[in-house]
Amino acid sequence: MSDPSTPNNQMGGFKSNSAGTPHTTPLQTGPLTALSSISATNSPVSGMHNNLSSNNLQSLDNNNNRFQQPQQYFQPQTPTQQPQQSQMQPSVSNNNLGSLTSQPIPTPQQRLISSSCFEFFYIEMIDYIMKSSSDKTQAHKKLDKLGYKVGHRLVERLSNETPLFPELLDAVKFICKVFWTNIFKKTIDGLKTNHKGVFVLTDSKFQWLQHLSFDATANNKDCSEYVQFAAGLIKGAMSNFGFKCIVSFDIQQVSTCVFTIKIES
Amino acid sequence: MIYNIYIFNKDGLCVYYEEWNKRKQSVNLAEDQKLLFGMLYSLKAFISTSSPKPIDPKTGFHCFKTSTYKLHYYETLSCIKFIILTDPNTPDLREDLKKIYSSIFVEYVVKNPIYQLKSTIKFYAFVNPIKPNFKQKT
Amino acid sequence: MIYSLYILNKAGTLIYQNDYGPTEKLSHNSYIRLGSTFHSLHAIASNLSPVSGSSSGIELIETDTFKLQCFQTHTGIKFYIIADPNHPGLEEILHGIYELYTDYVLKNPFYEIEMQIRCDLFDYKLSRLLKLTTD
């Protein structure tokens, strides 16, 4: 399975190296990715790097043994796929639109992305942004904006087949379930609301804080920059549904994050 | 019976040191660490020359024993060295060192956003698993 | 399978070296250098001991491709062999070699103490002993 020409195989040549290999979690794409988009737009990464062409991604895949090599991006249309796709057509049965979407929507083969790779990248990205401005609040605003853009676009893709949300609560539920699962492979653990436009989302094992720990002697235990991006994601998602809001967060204990959404009416 | 553990990075800086049951008080810990690092460096060069077959000094050297202690050694490809000193009758602890590297060091030090490369490690998420891990062996 | 034998005197100088198995032949200077390196490593190892009380130097080194067993006499002479990683009974072999040393080297009136060993009888007896152990 491993290609001798890839640099990673040199590491694999010694017996003792299996120790530090990255964890992979299949960032699986469900029926939603039957869309013909090639790049791994399911990961938040791609939202930021719009120029990330499929070529780059493929080379990224090639460099890690754990990635499955996508043999081809499009599977040939099989008869069983068709009835599925007709369900995915929007309810508007306009001829023009119908012809666009009645083309067979191919399902790319399952592609895996290494979650450790993303975590390392995320650490460096946060570091870079925090260093880019001397004022901490400015840096936080940048992160927020970044998250906003990514969340905005991500939710566009993810909500492709879901019907319009009749209520605000449904939009929030979508974020708790589908949106969060797509990014973190788990749902939000707790949702509370006062029915007046304030929602409290609790994630008891926030993935990006899992490996973070401080010196026992450290005075300043502030790791809010690592969560700010996620708050921006939520804000962007909500705004794309049409609900402008303010998202604040609170880090409790170890890796428990509480996000508070306040809708601006 | 485990005496102490050292973790060195590529530049010879001891990023983590912990001792249990050490009977002898060292005069200067930093000097001891430097001595150990230098000695291992020469030892690796020695074994690569004396070996009858070609050997990789990083992964080839397992341990050495004297009358009062045994030193177990595990080096990763990124030149992080894990060293444990135990009593002479302990069986090979390389697997344990490997486990410490893969499941504790990588998870809680390498992936920790707060960790600055080349600094010493005091994170409780790292220190806490190590202590009980070895308490049960002492 | 025993690959080689080295004997160092009290000062750490190589006084005897021989190969008995398929191993790379180095120049004489390299052997001398190896011997002195081992002498220093042996000494530093006893300094590194975490236990109070005197520690001997390195007695055993285990690696992927070979095992090195060392025996130091009370007079400071070090005998060390390089053998297969799972070769049994190296300690007895070293004791046997020590006996041969006392018999055929120290009792040889032409041998200068602490100098290079050039005794044919010693070589012969050694190779016989090592052949016996490999059979």
UniProtKB/TrEMBL annotation, chain A:
Region annotated Disordered, chain positions: 1-108
Compositionally biased intervals (Low complexity): 50-91
Biased amino acid composition, Polar residues: 1-49, 92-108
CDD domains: TRAPPC6A_Trs33 (cd14944)
Annotated GO biological process: endoplasmic reticulum to Golgi vesicle-mediated transport
GO CC, one annotated term: cis-Golgi network
SUPFAM superfamilies: Ligand-binding domain in the NO signalling and Golgi transport
Protein family membership: Belongs to the TRAPP small subunits family. BET3 subfamily.
The protein's name: Uncharacterized protein
Organism: Dictyostelium purpureum (Slime mold)
Organism ancestry: Eukaryota, Amoebozoa, Evosea, Eumycetozoa, Dictyostelia
From TrEMBL, chain B:
Main location (coarse class): endoplasmic reticulum
Cellular component, GO annotation: endoplasmic reticulum; Golgi apparatus; TRAPP complex
InterPro entries cross-referenced by the UniProt entry: Longin-like_dom_sf, TRAPPC
Record keywords: Endoplasmic reticulum, ER-Golgi transport, Golgi apparatus, Transport
GO-annotated biological processes: endoplasmic reticulum to Golgi vesicle-mediated transport
Family from the record: Belongs to the TRAPP small subunits family. BET5 subfamily.
Record protein name field: Trafficking protein particle complex subunit
Organism: Dictyostelium purpureum
From TrEMBL, chain C:
Gene Ontology biological process terms from the UniProt entry: endoplasmic reticulum to Golgi vesicle-mediated transport
Protein name in the entry: Trafficking protein particle complex subunit
Entry keyword set: Endoplasmic reticulum, ER-Golgi transport, Golgi apparatus, Transport
Primary localization: endoplasmic reticulum
SMART domains in the record: Sybindin
Domain of life: Eukaryota
Quaternary context: Part of the multisubunit transport protein particle (TRAPP) complex.
Annotated Pfam families: Sybindin
Family: Belongs to the TRAPP small subunits family. TRAPPC4 subfamily.
Keyword field contains Endoplasmic reticulum: yes
InterPro entries linked: Longin-like_dom_sf, TRAPPC
UniProt GO cellular component terms: endoplasmic reticulum; Golgi apparatus; TRAPP complex
Subcellular location: Endoplasmic reticulum; Golgi apparatus, cis-Golgi network; Golgi apparatus
Keyword Transport: yes
